[in-house]
Amino acid sequence: MNNLSNHNPEFFGSEVSSSNLLWQYVKSMSPETVAQLSKPTSPEVLQAIEHTIISMLGGLPSENFNVLITTNRDNLGRLLASAMMNGYFLRNAEQRMELEKSLQFVEADASDSH
To answer: Is pTM beyond 0.70 here?
Structure first.
């Protein structure tokens, strides 16, 4: 049993239920798989994720301001879910870009050999 399945589903909002197939799938993943899926593989994706989170929290530079953000549990859960979804979206976009580059190289090699 992984760490995600030990959390109370109420943390993620009342919409999560035992009939939610995506939630069941995430709960079935090993911690190693979740960790691998959670890591950005490029500095560009990491920078985009950081930029997204900073824009959600507000853009005041912490070196010039004593920034303190307070929220309740529900809003924090929504913020984390949003950040995770943005991260997954960016990772998928990165994988698609890598795939398209690979296909372009294959097509270029195929046209060179004819």
So the answer is: no
